Amino acid sequence: MSVFLKMSVSVTLRPFARFLVPFTLHRKRRNLCSTLLHRCMSSKIPAVPCPNKEGTSAPEQLELDGWKATMKSSVQEAISTGFSDKDEDPLVATRELIEMWRLLGREVPEHITEEELKTIIECPSKSSKKKYLKYLFIKENLKKARQIKKEMKAAAREEAKNVKLLETTEEDKPQNFLFLRLWNKNINSAMGWKGAQAMQFGQPLVFDMIYDNYMKPKELQNAVSQLLESEGCNRRNIDPFHIYFCNLKINGAYHRELVKRYGEKWDKLFLTATEKSYVDLFPKDDIIYLTADSPNVMTTFRHDKIYVVGSFIDKAMQPGTSLANAKRLKLATECLPLDKYLHWDAGTKNLTLDQMMRILLRLKNSGSWEEALKFVPRRKHSGYLQVSQQSRDFVNKVKKAKTFNSFPKGSLNVHKRDNLNEKI
């Protein structure tokens, strides 16, 4: 009978076991958690002496504020002991975070410098940090690809050289020639001599370096690349400018990037880099600020003036920045006559720094706008404006008048009479 009752109870309770088992498990877990919490709290919370029953009343207990203060102090001590190393050096923490992201497969660079780490720390949001890390990742991959391509070209060149050496005979060997070979060392010394002469007697050309706060790091790097191209183009020219880098802050963004690019050659360049403004170095009446926003159009190149070019890449579309700076200093401003000579299609009339350098050098040497404006990119215009027939006729008349006036009066008739007498 008892066996029958047990079987009936098990049969009746079996459908409800599915719902009863979780409750029992939750109770066990709750009891286990409460015991663990009790043990942890008892070990962490400092012992509080019990008040004397004789000296104090029965309802007196530990105050809530005191208990909170002790708990907060214990938690802060635990946090400080656990994370003291990372708080002291945030660069190490940032580097570890980047390494963790790299192991997770995110687009972060493998090698990163301390300057780049400081830039990441200064980023205001997490999304800006991710964008900057992605930019560094793409830059590193491009650098690796260029290095691999360079090594492949060097290997192919070496292989071709070995094949050519095997195929050459005694007759094909190089022989002595009449002309002297110009080595790179001699060419560099000649260019350096021209640069030294330009520093003493050349016309000054100023690059205004005050716009480093208006650009992002990538734009500033592009501006420095254009400055390097401009300096090289000026150094190779027949009659170079005396380049001035004015308003260049020592240990500023521009100065750090220039020193990083040039390296040891920075102190050997034939140019003047100074923290002073061009207003302090030259008289204001001789300065002309070249800006695309100026209402005054440049007609001719003046050799007695000092031209200022703002070293500013305006991808964020901030029109009028350089013009406002020139107006604040009360300087004369001019812009290139692009609409006068070119069919302008689309886009802003802002040119790069190396394009401006080539245009000014060509104007200085030849004085021809048609030759100078060849350095304007073809994607921005559809060709030169056609000169009207009337203006051509006028130019031809002026040329003929100059040629006829160059001969003295009656000289042509005298020659004709002499020729007739000889024939007779």
Automatic annotation (TrEMBL):
Tagged with keyword Glycosyltransferase: no
One Gene Ontology term from the biological process aspect of the record: mitochondrial tRNA 5'-end processing
Entry EC no(s): 2.1.1.218, 2.1.1.221
Descriptive protein name: tRNA methyltransferase 10 homolog C
Subunit structure: Component of mitochondrial ribonuclease P, a complex composed of TRMT10C/MRPP1, HSD17B10/MRPP2 and PRORP/MRPP3. Interacts with HSD17B10/MRPP2; forming the MRPP1-MRPP2 subcomplex of the mitochondrial ribonuclease P complex. Interacts with GRSF1.
Enzymatic reactions: an adenosine in mRNA + S-adenosyl-L-methionine = an N(1)-methyladenosine in mRNA + S-adenosyl-L-homocysteine + H(+); guanosine(9) in tRNA + S-adenosyl-L-methionine = N(1)-methylguanosine(9) in tRNA + S-adenosyl-L-homocysteine + H(+); adenosine(9) in tRNA + S-adenosyl-L-methionine = N(1)-methyladenosine(9) in tRNA + S-adenosyl-L-homocysteine + H(+)
Transferase found in the keyword field: yes
Keywords: Coiled coil, Methyltransferase, Mitochondrion, S-adenosyl-L-methionine, Transferase, Transit peptide, tRNA processing
Gene: TRMT10C
Subcellular location, principal: mitochondrion
Positions of the SAM-dependent MTase TRM10-type domain: 191-383
GO function terms (MF aspect): identical protein binding; tRNA (adenine(9)-N1)-methyltransferase activity; tRNA (guanosine(9)-N1)-methyltransferase activity; tRNA binding
GO annotation, cellular component aspect: mitochondrial nucleoid; mitochondrial ribonuclease P complex; nucleoplasm; tRNA methyltransferase complex
Subcellular localization: Mitochondrion
UniProt cross-references to InterPro entries, sorted A to Z: MT_TRM10-typ, MT_TRM10-typ_sf, Trm10_C_MTase_dom, tRNA_m1G_MeTrfase_euk
